[in-house]
Amino acid sequence: MSSRDSILATVARNQPAGLPLPVVPSFVLEEEDLVEKFTNVAVGIGSKVFRVKSLEEVKQVLLEEHGTSGRIISSFPQFSAIAETAIAPDVDPHSLADVHLAVLPAQLGVAENGALWVTDAQLPLRVLPFICQHLALVVPQQSIVPLMQQAYEVIGVQDYGFGTFIAGPSKTADIEQSLVLGAHGARTLSIFLYYQTQDKRLIF
Amino acid sequence: MKETEDHATLAEAFNADEPRVNWHDETLWFIRQKRDKAAHTIPDWELLRETASQIKHNVLSNLHDYLLQFEANAKANGIIVHWAADAAEHNQIVHAILQKHGVDRIVKSKSMLTEECHLNEYLAEHGIEVIDSDLGERIVQLAKEPPSHIVLPCIHKKKEEIGDLFHEHLGTAPGVSDPQVLTEAARQHLRETFLTRRAALTGVNFAVAETGEFVICTNEGNADMGAHLADVHIACVGIEKIIPKREHLGVFLRLLARSATGQPITTYSSHFKKPREGHELHLVFVDNGRSTQLGREDFRNSLKCIRCGACMNTCPVYRRSGGHSYHAAVAGPIGAILAPNLDMKKNADLPFASTLCGSCSNVCPVKIDIHQQLYKWRQVIVQEGYADRKKTMGMKAMTQTFASPSTFKLAGKAGRWFMRNVPFVLNNKMNPWYKQREMPEPPKESFGEWYLRNRKKTDE
After folding, report:
1. What is the β-pairing status of strands A99-105 and A134-140?
2. Whose CB among A108, A138, B44, B175 lies 3.0–4.6 Å from A192's, allowing a Cys bridge?
3. What is the DSSP letter of B235?
4. Which among B134, B287, B146 has a CA at the least distance from the CA of B217?
5. Residue of B159, B219, B265 with shortest CB distance to A172
6. Which residues of A touch B274 (CB under 8 A)?
């Protein structure tokens, strides 16, 4: 018998009688102002949060924070003047080792933990948000959900190859519990909460 | 082979340096307090724990079907699924994949399962270099030590010691111990590693049966840096890490980091569903005793564990004896109920390394009855004849003493007389009760004697 079959046979023999799968209760967030809660938590874990009305504003903030000297990659065509905006999906991921700044959209943010959800749909390459020195994520303010539970309700049955929640800059406290930002991933995370009006929608 | 020293002996060595033990104790208690603070921000915390616990019970009772469901969905996603009955087979499978690709150097992110299987040693014997990429794991790897904590691998190390290691191995300036500077040195060193390794190995936090995807949580981003740059990604997972549905991540991801370090969530919670175009993604399911544990009614709940480490941070014995005293891949209370399943004789001492205070069970995010299992393991171990002989003899003597009122009275009298008149008979190196302890003044009379005397007075 193969290991697969023998493991499965032992599991079948040893598992207890069926216990029901519970219905997950509807959890709620106490705080009502999602943007405020999101901002407080995100700042608490080391992110910078900016509320903006246009991509032009995003550009200005980032130029002030990071300058124009380094290599910038963005999936926003509006950034074409300062960034590479058309990275082919089959490019060698190692070629991104010198990326200074990546500017990408996020699908949603989670108020309780300051995390943002991105998938292949937002990422030219999977490694990009990790290998860049600095990361900026732009998310519509209306896409902030209260809890992880609601985040997964929105994600639903999305068929991505890769997706990730990003909550703050890469960090470690492995040396005597001293918090250090910038372990292996991005050293900083700038979050832009985009206020989307009915008549002037930002195209992602 | 050298016999492993038992927990008490190893803990004694750890306790030789008292200020250091106090520091270790306080550091872990600080993390426990951060966990409390994070848990208290969620009014539904207890309901969340109960929900997670029930989901895990459902998983264990339907594990066979969930494993098959995961396998089918993962295969449809393009993931290559392997099955390993034990540690040896796991190591062979990983080695064979690397051989097929002609890889002799790999980068690895944290996986307690590969520690349990001693993969690094196995691969080294076969000429394959493994570099651990989690900062804490890299530090203990350079020190040629195992991790002492599942979430904080080098929690037992002082920054000065880490500075010395980095000076020797990574070329930092002598005497540098600033965590910021040391972390930056590790970042540069490991970035070069990530960019040059063609195979990456990772652990798995959750495998979702419904979608065939798996989730890896890190703060450093090391799992992602390794996996997205390598041609081959191998993920190793214990069969118990299955959860039924994607939406259940919305329960477990709320509990994991808050319980572990008090963070609202880890920096990265990465969902791997399909391999990158033109690349290979392998997943190795490992049993290694888990299916046996599933059949032990009293101990199967240990398989609910999500490896947050909260039980270690809160444990008064772990905090004052250090992770290495448990001589197992997983230390602390949860390790002490997992290890006897793998090797009861070698780990017979571990369930006794507890005060049974129950704090571990109270902080466990999936409500494992850890302290009750510790108590039950003690009974099994004594019955199977694996208990320490001195302990067995002592217990037998105690049983006889307590069973007979006259022996009990006599023993009490004798004890009080010896303690008062010839204390050195009891207070010597032969008696472990006096290690780092002073005994209180012996009373002049026993409670029994006092009661008899006073009751008479009232009766009169």
Report:
1. parallel
2. A138
3. E
4. B134
5. B219
6. 160-162
**CA B46/CA B230 separation, integer angstroms:** 41
Please report the ipTM that was assigned to this predicted complex: 0.97
Whether residues B228 and A126 touch (CB distance < 8 A) is answered with yes
* Helix, strand and coil percent figures for chain A, each rounded to 5: 30, 25, 50
A123: how many CB neighbours lie within 10 A of its CB? 23
Write the residue in B179, B191, B249 that is nearest to A178 by C-beta. Answer: B179
DSSP B179-223: HHHHHHHHHHHHHHHHHH-SEEEE--SEEETTTTEEEEEESS-HH
User: Domain extents for chain A?
Assistant: 28-87+97-194
CATH no. for A28-87+97-194: 3.40.50.10420
Q: Check CB contact under 8 Å for B60 and A16.
A: yes
Cα gap B192→B189, rounded to integer Å: 6
CATH superfamily of B42-288: NagB/RpiA/CoA transferase-like (3.40.50.10420)
B150-183: pLDDT as tens digits: 999 999 999 999 999 999 999 999 999 999 999 9
State how far the Cα of A84 lies from the Cα of A63, in Å rounded to an integer: 15
Report pLDDT digits (tens) over B90-129: 999 999 999 999 999 999 999 999 999 999 999 999 999 9
Angstroms from A68 CA to nearest CA on chain B: 23
* Chain B partners within 8 Å of A26 (Cβ): none
Distance from CA of A199 to the nearest CA of B (A): 34
What is the pTM (predicted TM-score) of this model? Answer: 0.94
The long-range contacts involving B437-440, CB below 8 angstroms and separated by at least 24 positions, are none
- Can you give the residue ranges of every domain in chain B? 42-288, 403-459
- Name every chain B residue with its beta carbon within 8 A of the beta carbon of A45: 263-264, 267
> Token pair 């290991």 is at which residue?
A3
Collect all residues with Cβ–Cβ distance below 8 Å to B369 and sequence separation of at least 6.
Answer: B301, B361
DSSP state of B301: G
Phi, psi of B229 (to 5 degrees): -100, -25
